[in-house]
Amino acid sequence: MRLLVFRHGIAEDVSADGTDASRVLTPHGVERTQKAARGLTAFTDPPDVILTSPKARARQTADAAAEVFGSPIELLEELADGPPGPALAALAERGEETVMIVGHEPMLSELVEQVCTTRPLGFVDLRKAGCACLDVTLAPGGDATDAVLLWLATPKMLR
Question: Are strands 98-103 and 49-52 parallel, antiparallel or unpaired?
Answer without folding.
Answer: parallel
